[in-house]
Amino acid sequence: MPTRTTPQGEKEAPVRVEMTVGAVANGGWCVARHEGRVVFVRHALPGERVIAEITEETARFLRADAVEILEPSPDRVSPPCPFSGPGRCGGCDWQHASLDAQRRLKAEVVAEQLHRLAGIDRKVVVEEVPGAPGGLGWRTRVQFAADRDGSLGLRRHRSHEIEHVDHCPIAHPGVEEVGAERRDWRGAAAVEVVASSGGDRAVIVEPLPRRRADLPDVDASVLLDEGRRGTRALSGRASLVEQVAGRDFRVTASGFWQVHPGAPATLLGAVIELGRPEPGEWALDLYCGAGLFAAGLAEAVGPEGAVLGVESEPQAVQDARFNLRDLPQASVERGRVEEALDRLDIERADLVVADPPRAGLGRPVVDRVAALEASRIVYVSCDPATLARDIAWFAPHGYELADLRAYDQYPMTAHVECVALLVRSRAEDVTG
To answer: Which of 10, 87, 93, 108 has the most CB atoms within 10 Å of its CB?
Structure first.
């Protein structure tokens, strides 16, 4: 928090400003103005009159926390988490907003990003994902920070400071049953707790440099994070079982899997519904992870079709190959997407599914995927800004947005998951 220092070295009180808050912005902020500069305000809602405390100042904009609400929005509620609020836990952005309001705000962000970055005007509806009653108890993977005395907490917003907690209301019950927040973790820098839909529990401990962590007894597998060497199981198994649509998926405890318990089935359903894979088709699953979408695609295209998954993370490749072992029409290749497609001489596809990290596909991958001339591209994204940017980059190749689903996969936070369908227009319309 920026403060001014007196000649005697004493810090003055932080600057506070009265302002009216405007529209929502991507990232959990609302936009206001002060003395000609944009102010990104947390803990506020559009239309509110607030006292805002300046927390950061740059040449172009300010960041601030709404510390007093003078004229509240009708969408404002009391935060269900006792650790939420200005200067406290940074894990949630919208604890002070009703669930309906949260979804409207996220829909506005997606629509604004599509308009600004892709020139697309589209009404967006953010749908509920089953498995998070009241927007709580959904997060199946929580990473806690540890202080020097072994107490756990969560990082404050844009800070290395720790907010000590004895529970997390958005954590899945399986995470809370481990009771990590109420135990001593001396020697640990971070402790991640994971709960799977198959009933497995795992704790991943990152030790302090040159320190041995003192590990308490927990009812879970315990893994040690050894940095570049990966994780090593100290007790129990290094993998978890996730169950989706009647199938079991082996997932390395430290690997990627959707953190909302209802998300895998919801996203798989959306991918299949929008992509419409047909028997005999040739489909690609890019950034395939442990093989969730590849399995659904393989079942849809059948033995006469084929599915290729591409994934760069070695352990995820092993998991995906294990999970697809009963589907001979599916295979998985390790590598970066454009490198793997070039190495394997992949020139055409009927359907492409892509689920990249938050940074999106990027122009080189967009160009390489567009060159496949697939009739449908299903793009799964956790960042509406990079999604809209990539949609704009697909347009010169003749692809247009045909459908979009948005899901409230991360209640109480600013994050939203989208599944977009891009279809290829007539060949003569393609310009690049």
So the answer is: 93
